User: What shape does this take?
Amino acid sequence: MADFKFEPMRSLIYVNVAKEDYRPNLQRWLYKTHVPESISQFEPYVTKYAFYPSFPCPPEGDRFGYAKMQLTEHHWLVSDLDPRLEIKAMAETFPPDVLLWQGNLPEEVVEAMKKGPAPGEDDGDVGNEARKVDIPGANPFIFCFLPMWWEEDLKGKGRNIEDGVNYRWNVAFGFPDGVDKAEGEKWLREEVLPIFINAPECNRVLLSRVKKDINGCAMDFVMEFWFENQSGWYKVAVEDTASLAKPSWAEQDKFPFVKPYHRICSAAVADFTMSNNLQNYHGYITMR
Assistant: This one.
């Protein structure tokens, strides 16, 4: 691998579950099938692979694109999108039903996929195809690549694990097509971020830009806002932002104003997870 570009980076995947009936299916696939297959593929060039289960969806969480299953984190040493990594001795198991369970595709599309591609069509990688979907009832697969380290420390520098519990609201945010990026960022920094920075309920604010050159992700920023609990989140994210004026480019009437699960995805998670898979995964060992 001497000729590969050494490019340490972090990635986040926002995993939703479309309805509670699907949660057992998705959880079984993730831990029984997906974890060991993923480790088999990328263990030589990944240093962290972790699942952070989402706290229960807070009131009005859907309008923030709340991922009700988990936040998946990878730490990469090289780009996973390098074309040389496409040649795999054994493909990963990714049934179309996973896209239904995650809310990436509606049921009628998934059923059509199960029947196989039409003549002349290539079935390809259904996971990658979901990232590009733009059909009614479908939500794109949000896969954000970021610098390995946070780029901006906006509030709470020096906080440590003895300072208290953290309800970490992680947010991927992108502006709608046609919005001037500089103007959008000005709005974010001058109107939105001060609400969180000045709120006593919010004790930490961090920000990084999405590395859009890796996979063309629609998101522009990933941010984290830390609270003590869900009530603190609601006070700031819902009540305090109610005073924000609706921008001309708004896709919904209330903050965050953009289309949920398309231009905003989020999840509130804890600091720690037992699903640090490279270290903690020991197989799908069932309950007696």
